[in-house]
Amino acid sequence: MLAKRIIPCLDVKDGRTVKGVNFVDLRDAGDPVELAWQYSQQGADELVFLDITATHEGRKTTIDLVKSVAKQVNIPFTIGGGINELRDAEILLNSGADKISINSAAVRNPQLIDDLSKAFGSQFVVVAVDTRFVEGANYVHLRGGREKTDIHTEEWIKEAESRGAGEILLTSMDHDGTKNGFDNPLLGCINQLIHIPLIASGGAGNEQHFVDVFQQSNVDAALAASVFHYGEILIPELKERLRAEGIAVR
Amino acid sequence: MIGIVNYGAGNIFSLTAALNRIQVGYGMINSKEDFDQFDRVIIPGVGHAGAAMNKLRETGLVDTILALEKPVLGICVGMQLLTSYSEEGEAELLSVFPLKTLHFKNRVTLKVPHMGWNSVKAEADCPLFKDIPENTYFYFVHSFFIEHSPVYNGATCNYGIDYSAAIQKDNFYGVQFHPEKSGTHGEQLLINFTKI
């Protein structure tokens, strides 16, 4: 049985986590490596690091972070942010990243998806898509949802798959931050369109939301940040709940 | 000491990191002479099986590998290379196992690649799974699989179809999943390999 995956997402800047973290017994709440290790011990199936570093020096720190995580953590992880060309991805691969996630760089230059999947295999290439519902249709948005494009989300995701994406990470900007649950109708619809794994993101507020997203949209994985960081949802308890609902988890 | 066949097919950072975590010594095998320094051998590999086979041939190490009597573990594509043929690139492979590596496409209706944590059912006699609970989940990322073989099966995985997630024959072993990314049970499997 293939398990549904639970993925905590950590925002990092200059090698440190930026969103507040509220774990007990954490020596250094800003240290992404320690957090990553804690999550792996709790039963997280995978981790995503979103690098929002702006400076060149910070980027070097991020690469050191990737190396440290790869050395100390025994589950797969994805790193996103700041990947604009093949060379960026290659450095991360050689530093131990299992996957990279690309978002606006792929929208601006779709050929990047082809190039990355040819060079490193599609299993390495996650295409992250931020979507928002505007006047009757779903549109791809950039810059964390602030910049609307004219690209229909469904079309873009199908194109990303055909260009060699290995996985889609779909964030509903309408649900993100609301804690009212995932956008299950949209996720279910997208999941029917593609034949590669789909990761749901945006809206997780409680355990029931994870039950709902797996039962209603049948996505492969669900990602969340703050509910895990603040300890509002504990992964072992979440897994127990999912198991009780008949959802395959590790 | 484990020797890792260094033939340029994929990244071995994760594997060496895992060996460091379990405190198992290792080194790289670049030439025939290097094999003598190690008491067991890992053949890693990600990416395209046909391309990986070509790279392995270029190293000139194939005959030495085939003649090895010490324990050998192929991981992912490194395991597929031990079979006789892959549909990926229609490649002729090492033929340690008289088995074929096949594509999931047109054989299962599920998503491809098979990506994520899947439970596996180990054979009681497979030493790789000693001290690992039944139906443990391991981390898989692959689009090609090894046809199920009752003779050589070490563990069975079901993903729309039963296939061999682990194989064994004499001193040769292979696993389709990534033990180096499969949490503590994956690390236990690597420890088990050091004790075969």
TrEMBL record, chain A:
Main location: cytoplasm
Signal peptide residue numbers: none
HAMAP family named in the record: HisF
Protein name: Imidazole glycerol phosphate synthase subunit HisF
Top-level division of the source organism's lineage: Bacteria
Matching InterPro entries: Aldolase_TIM, His_biosynth, HisF, IGPS_HisA/HisF, RibuloseP-bd_barrel
Active site location: D11, D130
UniProt entry keywords in alphabetical sequence: Amino-acid biosynthesis, Cytoplasm, Histidine biosynthesis, Lyase
Places the protein is found: Cytoplasm
EC number: 4.3.2.10
Keyword Transport: no
Pfam families referenced in this protein's UniProt entry, alphabetically: His_biosynth
TrEMBL record, chain B:
Name of the protein this chain belongs to: Imidazole glycerol phosphate synthase subunit HisH
Active site per UniProt: C76, H178, E180
Role, per record: IGPS catalyzes the conversion of PRFAR and glutamine to IGP, AICAR and glutamate. The HisH subunit catalyzes the hydrolysis of glutamine to glutamate and ammonia as part of the synthesis of IGP and AICAR. The resulting ammonia molecule is channeled to the active site of HisF.
InterPro entries hit by this protein: Class_I_gatase-like, GATASE, Imidazole-glycPsynth_HisH
A GO MF term: lyase activity
Lineage: Bacteria, Pseudomonadati, Bacteroidota, Sphingobacteriia, Sphingobacteriales
Organism annotation: Sphingobacterium tabacisoli
Subunit structure: Heterodimer of HisH and HisF.
Keywords: Amino-acid biosynthesis, Cytoplasm, Glutamine amidotransferase, Histidine biosynthesis, Hydrolase, Lyase
